[in-house]
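Technical note accompanying the year-one report. For the benefit of new consortium partners, we illustrate the data format agreed upon in the data management plan: each record pairs a sequence with a structure-token string. No post-processing was applied to the example shown here.
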Amino acid sequence: MGKKVFKSLLVIMMMYSLCLSQVPRTHAEEGKLIEEEALLISEAKNTSFKPDENVHWYTITPSEESIENFTHFRIKLQSQEEVNFTVYSSLENATNDQTFDQYRAYSYSNETASVDFPISWTGPYYLKVETYVEYAIEEVSEVKETSYTLSYDGVSLPPSNGVIGEECPAELSTKERENGKAILQDLRTIRESLLSGTEDGKKLTSLYYKAAPFISSKMIFNKQIRDEVYSDLVTLKGLFADTAKNGEYSSYTISSKEQEAINSLYTIAHDSVPSPLKKQLEEATKKVNITNLTNSSVSQVISKAGLVRNNSTEPSRFIVKIKDGKSQSSAMAKMKSYGIKSVDSIAHDESVSDNLFVVELNDKGRNFVASSHTTSQQISKLSEVEFVEPVQTYQALSVDSQYPYQWSLKNNDMVSGDIGYEPLKTLLSGKNFDSTVIAVADTGVDHTLADLSDKVLVEKGKNFVDRSDDTMDDNGHGTHVSSIITANSDNHYSIAGVNPFVKILPIKVLDSSGSGDTEQIAYGIMYAADHGAKVLNLSLGGPYSRTIEYAMQYASKKGVTIIAASGNDGMEEVSYPASSKYAIAVGSTNRLDIVSDFSNYGKGLDLVAPGSDIPALLPDGNVTYMSGTSMAAPHVAAVAGLLMSQNPNLKPTDVEKIFTETTKDVSFDEQDNPYPSEDEYYEEDPDYPIEEVVPGYDAVSGWGRLNAYSAVSAVELTAKVNPILNNQSKVTGTAKSGSTIKVMSGTKELGSGTAKSGTFSVSIPIQKADQILEMIISSQAAKTSIKKWVEKAPNKPYVNKLTNQSVSISGSAEPNLKVNVKNSSRKIIASGTVNDEGDFSIKIPKQKEYTTLYVTVLDGYKESSETKVVVADVIAPNAPKANAISDLSTTITGTAEAGSNVTAKVNGRQIAAAKSNTKGQFTLKIKKQKAGSTVSVTAKDAAGNTSKGTNLKVSDKTPPAAPKAKTISDASTAISGTTEANAYVMAKVKGKQIAAIKANTKGQFTLKVKKQKAGSTVILTAKDAAGNTSKGTNLNVSDKTPPAMPKVNAVTSKSKIVKGKTEPYATVTVKSKTKTLGSAKANSKGSFSVKIKSQKVKTVLSVTAKDKGGNISKAMKISVKN
């Protein structure tokens, strides 16, 4: 949205405000045969007109040397008589007398005419030298030969300040004079407030364009006329001031003296123009009876002239959108039944959607307001109608100033204060991308300029202002915008455009005054989408329009990236359509690399780009400074086109993301502003909405200033950085293999790495939320800087205890977030959503004890840290399996749950503990336990779950002690003693049981036995209840029975041996009285022989046998015989 200052102003009453912002091409005679002579640089042509001549033609052909070394040809004409000359950019324009007024000049005595003609066309250029302007001089008394000198040289001029055209009559008469400045200011105000707003005003403007050169020419040569015009203007000064202030509501009354001034100005104008223009001038002033305005109010005159805008709050024209699939004919029939003036489709191209119509209401009559409101409501209620909205007007907005040229590409006054054009050019060197079609919906484009001649798709262009295919620029704004985008570089003509890989699709939606209606702009947008545009530049603005929004959506869905200027009011409000969600809104910066004062800002601004004092081409061939967000937007559009040439698959959202991530921060924090921040006014207002501050975003500069080199490098390197959260210790993304990546926080390097296989991962310390990190990615000639702010991840969820019995996992987190449950491999096994109260419960399969799960919550792409959950074991182990033990056992062996702690207890007292191995085997070392006692064995797992006890009865494997018994003899009939209580006592002799009995509780027993043979052994054993048999107790049956009286053979006095029989082995003793005569031991058969001395007859011998037990038999008394 650019603006320039122009000086053209015309003053006569009812034409005093006809000076406009820009003078278009003028037309005169057409079709005349041209015979030209070539002029050479720096060689003067001295010649004269023959009596029958009044026109000479010349050509200037720019050489390569001239194109390379100069920006303009300075053409000079010297003569004594009045001679004028005109310069044309081509034969066609010369034939049609089509050029710009600043390329017409007049030479007369002591006044050399000079024109600086830009070298902006390929040539040859045509010069027409003539002695008079046809029709302007109506009578010539005599014809005399007129001589002149014509020459040209090359000059290099900086870009101009935007002045186009000859000085208009008002300026010629007022400049350098008292009151002149005030008069001109009032005239400009009247021009902008009255003439530009009505059709009749525009017609008067057009008439002025034709008349101005003739009026100005006459004033240049006649000082008296200049003085008269000035005097008349001073007379009308009060009228001008009041009209400038009050416009169509001015109640100022025209006096008779002012009427005289008006008549004088009208006469001067009427006498100055040729006959065809006289008729038009007379027709234009007929409505108001210009010679009879005394005592009339200005408002009356303005009304008669048709300069009053329709100020009704209800417009007379509406745009009606028919729903897709609904009958248009039915809707049109119904609309016509409401008595409207006309229903007209605004689609005049088969390729453009035709479901939009302009409905014009009959605006005559006193009840128009009510009728307009009622009719629009009726139409909106039709079932076929989607919406109804009034037709509105949009402007190419602008501001002006001057600075060194093309600083936006290379800023010598501010390091890194440009878009990075030079490194971008190096990066693009040798590349041959396909051209991207960029549509410029504006005032048209002049494709005849050398720098644009092969850049404009002339045949595809469309003019929605007059519904034609002629998209030539009659304002200059669109050409300026287009040359910023893609003026050919390195060809020595004018300037270098940002993007060499572009074809401009010219779409004229704004007229010669820079204005356009809703339907023109909407269909221009849709036309661009339907005719191959990938980028659309909208350097215009106005009120919100649902129709334009529909067109924006239409284009966006077709993949068109829309770039729009934010506006030039210096207000905290992005203008429309830049504020649309389908547009990338662009503000302006100046050469100090700060946001321009005029640039609109606020919510919806995406980025800023150079827009102050941007030099670019105008249709007149001059490189001219213009300022505004209109100049900023094409910088961005150009780079958007370049990104699309690099990667045609990019979507508008991709392009926007690349821009916002690669911009340079140009935010400026004012420290010395004496005025309080606007925000302070709302501190005490609880109802005032407080917008969330997004790190890296500034309401004045958006995401930052365009960095074309960084943006293009990002695509060249396929560089993308994944979101960075405040719980991450890595920065990840994609980049061309081999690219180096540095992660910076301000000037501090957090980490670096290299891309491998197209991806990278750089370790960094975990960063706090809301910090801005910069990823510098580079490889060869490409280098991009991608900004990312550290986003706050959701708080990690709280998870309730999860057991191996659980069939769901539950917990709490921030409401309405997604919950993911992952296994140990981080594979999602279940998902759910947190409810409004912040709780969640998600079904899952039962998990094995000690299984590890991870639970996270997601807010879009932002994932929380993991909550680690280990499945708790709440299932007690099975009771251990243990081998039987006895009172002899010193270990307990068995199996239990692997890794469990096995414990043995007796009467609640732990006697041993051990851990089972991975196979569940265990061995408990114990002391020998009392037989019959119970050992309880349990297993306790790692979770503390204890199994049921396994009770081990201590079996009795210890035999009773050998019974203790009293000695027995062969006379005994009982064996008594003690043994283990209740033991079963048995007596055996030679393995044969001879008796058995159970000991009492004190262990006492008595066995009844038969008398046993002396010397025999009775073996006693005790057998306990468990069947354990003690060792035997051997009881030797003692001999307590004396042997029988020995049988003794007869003994004589001669016997020296006493023989006989007795108990075997008994010791036989023979006594005589007390005297032992002899003894001997019986043999095994009991026979014995005892040697004695011969005894006297009748000696009584006493023979006894003594057994081994010492028992002595009764004595056998025997008398010795003869």
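Partners are asked to follow this layout when depositing records. The chain has a mean pLDDT of 84.
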